[in-house]
Each structure stands twice: as structure tokens, then as C-alpha cells.
Amino acid sequence: MEITSRHHLREDEADEIRDRLRENLGVELEGTIEEIEVDDDYDILLVDGRPLLARFDDEAFVTVQGALELEPDRGRVIVDAGAVEFVTNGADVMRPGITEVDVDVREGDLVVVVEENHGKALAVGRALVDADDMEGDEGRVVESLHHVNDELWEFDG
């Protein structure tokens, strides 16, 4: 990953991100936000120097580290123990592994993928279907965008 630029966000832009995270995930975000543009499919948003957010397709959302720290109570897709190994290796989420979904999730939404036993975030992805169509016997339902142990997870600022 190569950094192409780095700058602090204007306060109005930072407030817009905070409002969106509060509305979509139920989290309160405090601190100074700095954007690091990289040569990948996302840009990193540091909050007080920590990579808690990223822009996926120009939409600010929590990283796995951000989800672990901020513990969102909305926008979550919960998977069973059998899915953990696959999800942490970057696989998309499949219907059979899902145990619970936030009812407000819609196709195209960014979501946090969480394991059911300890409630820990494993990945961030994009919902490929609405919540009411996520559970079932087969098919991909969340495209993985970022997961534990990937390059963004390893980023140290």
C-alpha cells in the first residue's frame, strides 16, 4: 500500500461522517479525523491517529479495528463459528453461515460482519441483498471489503 496524500478533514466533513455513523451504526465518534489516500480500493481515515474508519467507494465506514473499539449495535451481520475461518481469510459471507442480521440492512449497505460467540468484528463488507433475504441454504450475501489480518488491518499510521 502506497500513501499518495495525507490531510486533516474540514470540521463540517468530519461532522457529516460522525452524524452518518451515529445514524447507521449507533456509535459516537470523537476525535480529529485525518484522511490518508492510498493506492487501494479505499482511503484510510485516522481518528486521533488510529485507523478506525475508511472510505469504501467514497463512503466513510468503520474498519474492523473501528468496529472492535466502537462496538456498533446496528448494521451488523452475525455469522456462526463455522464461517469465522473463511471470513477472516477474506471470503464473502454465504447464507448458510448467517445466524442473525440487523433488520434495517438493505442491498448495497456497508455492514460489519461479527462472530456470534464473542460478538467480535471479523470483517467489513457490502450487503448484496436486503436483510430479509440473507438467511438461507446457499448463495453469497455480503461481499468482503476488509477483514482481520489484511493490509488495512495491519496499517499502523
Give the total of beta strands: 11
What portion of residues is helical? 10-25%
> Can you list the strand order of the major beta sheet?
7-11-10-9-6-8
- Residue share in β-strands: 35-45%
| Total helical elements | 4
CATH class of the largest domain: Mainly Beta
CATH fold annotation of the largest domain: Archaeosine Trna-guanine Transglycosylase, Chain: A, domain 4
Q: Architecture of the largest domain, CATH level 2?
A: Roll
Instruction: State the order of secondary-structure elements, H for helix, E for strand.
Output: EHEEEEHEHEEEEEH
Structural class: alpha+beta
Query: What is the domain tally?
Result: 2
Low-pLDDT stretches: none
- Please outline the major beta sheet: 6 strands, mixed
Q: Mean pLDDT across all residues, rounded?
A: 91
**Global outline:** globular
**Rg on CA atoms, Å:** 15 Å
Give the distance, in angstroms, between the N- and C-terminal Cα atoms. 12 Å
What is the fourth-level CATH superfamily of the largest domain?
PUA domain
Gist of the model:
The protein is α+β, with helices and mostly antiparallel strands. 22% of the residues lie in helices and 38% in strands.
Describe the secondary structure blueprint for this structure.
Layout: E1 3-8, H1 11-25, E2 33-38, E3 42-47, E4 50-56, E5 59-62, H2 64-70, E6 76-79, H3 81-88, E7 93-94, E8 98-101, E9 110-115, E10 121-127, E11 140-147, H4 151-154
Parallel strand pairs: 6-9
Antiparallel strand pairs: 1-2, 2-3, 3-4, 4-5, 6-8, 7-11, 9-10, 10-11
